[in-house]
Amino acid sequence: MQDGRTGGSARAFELLEPLVQAATVRVHAAPGGYATPDGHRAGPTWGSGFFIAPGWVLTCAHVVGEGGAAVRLVGRELGITFSSGPGTTGTVTGRVECVLPERLEEQRPARRALWDLPDLALVRVLAPVSHACVRLTDRARPRPGEVAYFGVTEDLGTPEITGRTTRLRGTAAAGAALRLGDDDEIEPGMSGGPVVDLARGEVVGVVKARRRTGGGGLAVSVVQLRTLPLPATGQVGLYRRVIQAHDLYHYDQHLSDLDSRRTWTDVHGELPPPDEPYGGRLRLTPAERTTLCGLLAELPPPGSSEAVRALVEAARGEEPDPALPAPLSWRDGLGMLLDPPGGAGEAAAMLRYATDVSVADHREPPSPGADEELWDWVRATAERLWRPLRRELGERHEQGLAARDRRRRARAGQPVPGPGRPAGALAPGPSVLLEAWAHGWEDVYDWRVSVLAGPAHPGRLTPVGSGVHVSRARLPEAVRDALAEAFRRCDSHEAPALLEVAVAPELFGLPVDTWTVAGRVPLGVQRPVVLRYPAGGERPTAAPAPGSGPYDDADTDAHRRADRWARVQAGPLLDERADCDRGRPRSPAPEWLDALPDNTVPVHCRAADAEPTRGSLHAVRDAGYGVAVTRRPPADPGESCAPFHRGLREELTEAGRGAPLPVRVQALRARAHGADPDAYWADGMALVWDDPARALPEDEPLQGDL
Does 101 sit behind a cis peptide bond, omega within 30 degrees of 0 on the bond before it? Predict the structure, then answer.
């Protein structure tokens, strides 16, 4: 240990070192076979890694990219040398399953340059082997304090796993990176090794880089695992599968009496206790935390991130920090219950949360008795706590069961979603909101990505990311990470969340539906993408002045919008060319727009940032139409717009009513992306969908630098 370390951290290092070393591995070139007795002879070291679940190794992307600048990372096979018992090692072949960020496959950094964050790789072991696993933190934001980092060194010419101590001095890159102090030097082979919080006895990071001028360096927060590629609708994502296996591993280790070696749970019980006024009564014991995580892992994963956040809010008594990464598993919710407000105990908050999970609507039926077993554990654990809490939990459980039964009865007889079901309405949950504002007369934009709670919480807007002074060409890259995080928060196992793009009408030509966030599939193919008018926008000068038409006040205006929205949703739908008359441009008169039937969908086929379409879009909004269609015109200005209008009329007729339109437009984009020539007419089409039930809060655009 380094001089100046506290006695508590010295004892913690002594207890944790054997556990971490047993799970840390050496990464190198793939061996000739699946197993070799002398792992240290299997080629030079590329870096380190560590087992986070049975058969899964976490390391850095730049480690698995060693010596292969032209080699594709995902699918690459490599060697993993691990501890197979006291004083013995074995080597097994692993395959890279994914790297983060995904764009590293196409955009490799220059030689000796830092790889883009989060710089992580998940490796699957290709043979069944017995090995140890680390314990990962569930805290979304690690606290500064004393830590230890581990990795491969060759001080005596032979690779060995070494541990050293330092301080975690803070975070960088919005919490994605951890700053390590300069108490000791990070050697090259330690990249990809674990960083352990000595106070809590959990792995919080992955060693990434060392400083060129001396000791210390950077690590990647393990919470960045939540940015693993999003699963397809109806599938369990890789993150949830790995975390479930991680928690069940430690649960099984805790329950087993076949091995006398100390487990992570045993060691957690021996760590120096934190300073707290009421001893351990306000917290669950290490054994209780391990058991709770194991019982949660035996349940089906949550249907969405927002489902977890809602239960966390109910258990905490306040909305969780919106800046925290999206919780994707039930376990992640526990990490958001640490340090509850008002001095309330963590144990009480976690037991409330576990009670609510036990009566939640799961995406699929749990294993027989799994939800009852969780509730039985909650009730038994509460016996050591306050009597009023025990009574509260019992009432909470009874009310939750009754509410679940009511929801199930209400759904009885409804059609089951599935591939064969006709395209229906949007999911009623939260949506992702992208806003962009032109920055004065410059061709740069301010932007914000938020989660819009929708009708369940009217007016609630949770910012996820923002930026200023971004050129139009750089906008897709600037918003990529914020959109990915927002999608993780809003997507459910039933359907991907809606993306609402609120911009001025002259920006309706932004090709947001063609942008990519994860993989190579455009956003408009992955999910419904609609346009919205920004909140609080000025009335265009072409609009009729108050008192000059049939509507002369805000209340009547709102009633008109509501009536037209309701009529379009009920159908049948009528289309009307707004900026075009048989291919010739025209500007619609306000009186003409006012006189159209309420179930009309105004259609635009020309460029949104030029007249007459720009003025028409303003006039359409002013006339109270919440549903309209626009498109980015083809590159050839001489190409006829007749196929577009003809195809759209057929689509509106088949839809019959407004509710299915966002999903049907997504299906059209998917057909065009799949090279269906019968859908080419829809190329560049966009749907204006200004749902009054999903009102946008009125606030000012961003000002100044962030």
Answer: yes
pLDDT band at residue 344 under the 50/70/90 scheme:
low
Residues 532 and 696 sit within 8 Å (Cβ to Cβ) = yes
Query: In this structure, how many other beta carbons lie within 10 angstroms of the beta carbon of residue 460?
Result: 15
Helix residue spans in 284-369 (DSSP H): 286-297, 305-316, 330-335, 346-358
Name the DSSP letter for residue 343.
G
What's the whole-number mean pLDDT along residues 267-283? Answer: 71
Q: What confidence score (pLDDT) does residue 67 get?
A: 64
pTM, whole model, 2 decimals? Answer: 0.83
How many angstroms separate the CA atoms of 111 and 327, rounded?
35
Element (H, E) at 315: helix 305-316
Give, in degrees to the nearest 5, the angle at Cα 489 between 484 and 492.
105
CA–CA distance, 226 with 242 (Å, rounded to integer)? 11
Output the pLDDT for position 364.
76
* Rg, the chain, Cα only: 28
Residue 210: which H helix or E strand, with range?
Answer: strand 202-210
Any idea how long the chain is?
A: 706
Asked whether the beta carbons of 411 and 428 are under 8 A apart, the reply is: no
Which pLDDT tens digit goes with each residue over 347-358? 999 999 999 999
CB-count burial class (<10 Å; 0-12, 13-18, 19+) for 602: buried
* DSSP element (H, E) containing 97: strand 88-100
Q: Is the pLDDT of residue 276 over 60?
A: no
In this structure, the number of other CB atoms found within 10 A of the CB of residue 345 comes to 18
Largest separation between any pair of C-alpha atoms in the chain:
90
The confidence score (pLDDT) of residue 296 equals: 96
Indicate the pairing of strand 56-59 with strand 45-53. antiparallel
Q: What's the CA gap between 282 and 347, in Å, rounded?
A: 5
Q: Which residues contact 668 (CB under 8 A, 6 or more apart)?
A: 651, 679, 682, 685
Tokens linked to 361: 């609507």
Task: List, edge to edge, every strand of the sheet that includes 627-631.
Answer: 461-471, 444-452, 431-438, 499-502, 529-532, 685-689, 627-631, 600-603, 574-577
User: Does the pLDDT of residue 494 top 50, yes or no?
Assistant: yes
Residue 28 clears pLDDT 50, i.e. is over it:
yes
Contact of 337 with 353, CB cutoff 8 Å? yes
Whether 584 shows a pLDDT value over 80: the answer reads: yes
Cα 58 to Cα 24: distance, rounded to the nearest angstrom: 10
Lowest-pLDDT choice from 107-111, 166-170, 472-476: 107-111
The helix, strand and coil proportions of the chain, stated in percent and rounded to the nearest 5, come to 35, 20, 45
> Could you write out the three-class secondary structure of 569-615?
HHCCCEEEECCEECCEECCCCHHHHHHCCCCEEEECCCCCCCCCHHH
What's the pLDDT at 413?
Answer: 58
How far apart are alpha carbons 334 and 325 in whole angstroms?
13
Mean pLDDT of 544-553: 42
Choose between 544 and 236: higher pLDDT. Answer: 236
Pair 441, 459: CB distance under 8 Å: no
What mean pLDDT is predicted for residues 479-490? 92
Cα–Cα distance, 471 to 469 (Å, whole number): 7
Averaged pLDDT for residues 121-139: 94
Name the residue with tokens 């909470």. Answer: 396
3-state DSSP assignment of residue 213: coil
Give SS3 for 36: strand
Strands (E), 103-200: 120-125, 145-153, 160-172, 177-180, 194-197
Do 332 and 312 contact (CB within 8 A), yes or no?
A: no
Residue 161 has pLDDT above 90, yes or no: yes
Q: Which residues on neighbouring strands pair with residue 146, listed in sequence order? A: 167
- What is the Cα–Cα distance from 609 to 149, expressed in whole angstroms? 55
CA distance 95 to 123: 5
Determine the average pLDDT of the residues in 306-311: 91
